[in-house]
Amino acid sequence: MSEKHRDIGKVIIAGAGPGDPELVTLKTLRYLQSADVILTDRLVSPELLNCYANSRAELVYVGKQCRNGRSTPQASINELMVEHANAGKLVLRLKGGDVSIFSNILDELEALKSNGIPFEVIPGVTAALGAAAYAGIPLTARGWSTAVRFLTYYRSDVVTDEYWKELARTDDTLVFYMSAETIHGVVEHLLRHGIKNDRKIAVIGQATTPEQHVFTGTLEDFSQSGPTGYISPTIVIIGKVVALHQEFGWVMNKRLPQEYFTTTRTEIKID
Q1: Using one digit for the tens of pLDDT, what is the confidence trace for 228-249?
Q2: Per-residue pLDDT tens for 165-179?
Q3: CATH of domain 3-125
Q4: Hey, which residues are catalytic here?
């Protein structure tokens, strides 16, 4: 068959939610049950894959876990999507959380467009929304906070002193993604730039999973004796609304949480 008339498949980029396998859209579930190839992140519920994925689908783990040096390069993921779609297959690119919040979706969209691959994008429940809901913390609430900011902090040079001052002054709810290893630095910067030391913080590990664990306290308490060794993924919420957890938290803490998500598999090789 000529290149001009070849059968091209399609790539579905979908959010799998923060962990609870029931927090996926019906559309994502339908594609999960019909896809020929599933390219899945590490932070996708194992139960979702085991119970609902098409049993005939090729399941490829393309997770990222920088701490252990076994992350799949983004370029390899892009190549896999294009390769399988060019073979006429329906490809489900499954991402943890939502597809457009702190993900590499732009790289993937550019790769698909430049190669003439049809695609569809399906949103998911982002980690901040899942963590807040399962911890009983409304991110905005009348009389508590009228806005929320989604942030990440992974290097000291990515946030200026002026922005730290703004974050310290605002009454907006601050939500930090992927900051388990830097959260003590976040707290230190906020306190140094004038945030009230009695402002509340919640550190939520493995939110919405059976291994969810929530720590809450004041920033001052956290800076002096806050917990360490959080199990990834971790969401950090800072703001007045955190105080609502004590009244409305409805999921019991797992005393000794275990790893819910699987460790990243060996890097995928492209033939």
Answers
A1: 777 889 999 999 999 999 999 9
A2: 999 999 999 999 988
A3: 3.40.1010.10
A4: 41, 64
